[in-house]
Task: structure prediction
Amino acid sequence: MSDLVLVTGASGYVAGHVIQELLGQGYRVRGTVRSAARATAVAELLPGVELVEADLGSDAGWAAAVAGCRFVLHTASPFPSGVPDHEDELVRPAVDGTLRVLRAAAGSGVERVVVTSSIAAVEVGNEGHLLTEVDWSDTEQCDAYQKSKTLAERAAWDFAAQHPNLELAVINPGMIIGPILRAEAGTSVDGIRALLAGGMPGVPRLNFATVDVRDLAVAHRLAMETLQAAGNRYICAGEEVSFPQMAQILAQRYRVATRVLPDWLVRLSARFNPDARTAVRFLGRAAHLSAAKAEHDLNWTMRPVADSLLDTAESLIRFGLVPAPRPARPAA
Result:
């Protein structure tokens, strides 16, 4: 294949795996980075990708970035490690950046754009039933990150409706886990890193619908290639797994905390810890989502969550982001 594909945010966790997947399938890949310093790191990690500077906060560089591309995979979006002072710190860059990429793509004759959204745009306010692509988050109940993903995806669909010559597909991943590609851990694997580092006395009753970043990269490629994917959004997330269950899986190989923290203790810590305040909102909440549409339309599959967790742990240790944890205690 000789089609040229633009991947935004090439230095990101998801983008790195997407680029690897595309290069492995014979595509020519161009990636955007915010600075020359980022370009150096990405070029060393992903030889064969063409890199250009373009920032989601500016129009500069985007016309050149999309020039000659048949497809654009827009993976770049702010993902906070903490709670922002104001929601606009996330909402405006997410919405404006998405529209900036779509305008450039439409103006350059790009055939299809695949946007990385999130189940954060699906599940908020919709508890109590199996969630599918028809569900949308209630922005009145969203935190800043959830609102940014929901409004950015809404803006993308509105733009596509006004530009029928530009095809749009959207991927809505769950909690993204899987091996990192360099010594820089994304926010989504922070919980695994904290468990391995021994920084957690126990694990809260949080539930997640996860997806392996490698499977997610395949989903992006399939949404780009599959004819019927145009005009569709796809949930990419597995069955619910709790944080205590994740700890038990890791404990098969490493000595990590597995004690379940009582809810009252998590709520108490939230008075002093901003990150814990976010966790409180999700204590005991179910995460039931269906990936049946992606499985059917895209012929997409997911690997077992245990494989993803252990591969994530091995990569964090290999890159020195956690000290080598003690091995699990032998079974009695």
